Fold this sequence. Notes:
The protein is α+β, with helices and mostly antiparallel strands and 389 residues long. The protein has helices at residues 7-18, 28-34, 50-56, 107-112, 135-140, 150-156, 159-171, 177-185, 195-206, 211-216, 218-224, 233-238, 245-252, 258-267, 272-283, 292-301, 306-316, 322-335, 348-353, 359-373, 381-388; strands at 23-26, 43-46, 61-66, 71-76, 79-85, 87-90, 100-103, 121-124, 128-131, 143-144, 174-175. Among the domains are: 1-141, Beta Polymerase, domain 2; 284-335, no CATH class; 341-388, no CATH class. The chain has a seven-stranded mixed beta sheet. Strands 6-7 form a two-stranded antiparallel sheet. A two-stranded parallel ribbon has the order 10-11. The radius of gyration is 28 Å and the shape is elongated. 33% of the residues are buried.
Amino acid sequence: MNIKIPDYVKVVMNELTFNGYSCYVVGGAVRDAILGKEVHDYDLTTNAKPDEMVNVFKAFMTIPTGLKHGTLTVLSNNHPVEVTTYRLDTGYEDHRHPNSVEFTTNLQEDIKRRDFTINGLAFNNNEGLLDYYGGLEDINNKIIRCIGKADERFEEDALRILRALRFSVQLDFEIEEETKKAIFNKKELLSFVSKERIRDELLGILKYPCKNIFIDYLDIFKEALFFFPNPSNKTLDLLNNDNNEYIKLALLLDDISLESAKDLLTELKLSKHEMNQILAYLNNKDIEFNSRIDLKHFLSSYPYSLEDYLIYRKARNERFLIYKINNYMDEINQRNDIYTLKDLAINGDDLTSLGYQGKDISTLLNKALTLVIEEKVANEKIALLQAIQ
């Protein structure tokens, strides 16, 4: 089996082999190349010790990403390439990170510490594909299987539980029985995983059709997140569409109260923008648009993408008439209708010059905007000042 390695990666590999060291592409890059998927990141492993790598690449720009753990990032033709010394990880008291790292000269021992067989493949152009743990067979059979004993792999790093679920939906692979049993046996260890990492894996899962993973592994998500909902059958069906992960997350939260949704989003440590956008979907999930004026009222206070909002509404209810909203929007644009304060013919300075202060200014500007949106007063300075005083 031959895998095409980009020139900028070959440069790094050749530099190591020229200096007498072994070097292989490992992990996801090999897996994805075998699957015919586009590869974005190439991780390399070598028997060169960290100080030896630094010496080999002294003519290159490098970043000591995690040198004490054996990782050096080499910039090759402006591409960052991570190179890591073969290593053994010992002791995982926090069920996430090794207590210590020991370097080895044995590639198979390095591969043995990794998570799943499909990620335990190594390749270089001289030796071809090295497969110590049946990864190629599992790729061909579309199987997610831990390297070695699954219980031990999850004991070492509990995040692997969620990674198994993500790989399952991402690759459309089945999780084999012993790995599945271990996922449930060790689910309590998810308490050792940061909410940020849980968030990233959850969003990664939601990028793909994922109805079945939430049916089969709902207890895992409930273990990972205190406020996780019990999705209805209707909601589960919606998770198999091709909407983005934030719209799917909003759909998943449709089955719980707004307060509980807010608690879950807070628990996930989403950014303020992401959290507010999802809450805006939920806050406006049943609003009706019966006229162009209704749409203008909505747009006046909705700061996010109308297109994404409409996709969310259509996903919730396939009878929701997006074309009607788009027609209203076309009319608004053709008429140059305004629906925001910044487009109003008057501003705070106009009202300050008339003696108004503080909250009164905001109240009067919003009153003026309402009159213009509802087409009761033209968006003209004199007419508006007369109407609101």
